[in-house]
Amino acid sequence: MTAGNENPNEKPNPDEQDAAGQPAEAPAPEGAGSADTGAEGDALAQAEQILNSADVPAQPQEAGSPEAAELRNDLLRLQAEYVNYRRRVERDRDVAREMAVIGVLNTLMPVLDDIDAARQHGDLADGPFASIANKLENTLKTYGLAKIDEVGVEFDPNIHEALIQQQSPDVQSDTVTQILRAGYRANDRVLRAAQVIVSVPEQ
């Protein structure tokens, strides 16, 4: 076929080479280059705006740079503040739980006094009420409640309230000889001092 008989509608073969021996390239669509450049510029501008608003440097800092050391110190300080915050929250939660238990125990002390009085009068020797009283006292023990009602021990103003004081030749120091009203403690906290009679050595 001669050159004058080439079909103008025939599409060029992409495998054909040009006169310089290089593969022929298809012409780029009109306006494609300018569109890509515009989109890339918008993305870069948006990224720069985000970095500026977040106060983050656009370039990564070297490990030994002052900026990196400052960021590391800020991270360590935030971590320490978070640890202290968690400890404070846990401590406040434990204190609130302890105070709630103490409040309940304080409201039940008159009931415990009535149980002691009934037991001293022999009304709780046996029977269903004796069983209920024992269950109540055992349940309160699980919350750390302990009765202060020992006799023959040295008088301690932290847990005892001396209502009567009498001299006795049988003691060498101030000694609790009788409990008038039992006291109570919850773990290490004294809820109510025991009212006692104290025997003191003779002068």
Give an overview in words.
With 203 residues, this protein is an alpha+beta fold. The chain has three helices and six strands, in the order αααββββββ. Strands 1-4-5 form a three-stranded antiparallel β-sheet, with helices on one face. Helix 2 (66-120) runs antiparallel to helix 3.
Overall geometric form: elongated
Count of DSSP-assigned helices:
3
In total, how many beta strands? Answer: 6
Helix content: 40-55%
H/E element sequence: HHHEEEEEE
The CA-CA distance between the termini, in Å, is 147 Å
Strand content: 15-25%
Topology (elements, then pairings):
Layout: H1 32-53, H2 66-120, H3 128-141, E1 145-148, E2 160-168, E3 175-181, E4 183-186, E5 189-192, E6 194-201
Parallel strand pairs: 2-6
Antiparallel strand pairs: 1-4, 3-6, 4-5
Helix pairs in contact: 2-3
Question: Which descriptors would you attach to this protein?
Answer:
3-stranded mixed sheet; 45% helix; disordered N terminus; 3-stranded antiparallel sheet; elongated; 203 residues; alpha+beta; single chain; 18% strand; Nucleotide Exchange Factor Grpe, Chain A, domain 2
What is this structure, in a nutshell?
The protein is α+β, with helices and mostly antiparallel strands and 203 residues long. The protein contains three helices and six strands; from the N terminus they run αααββββββ.
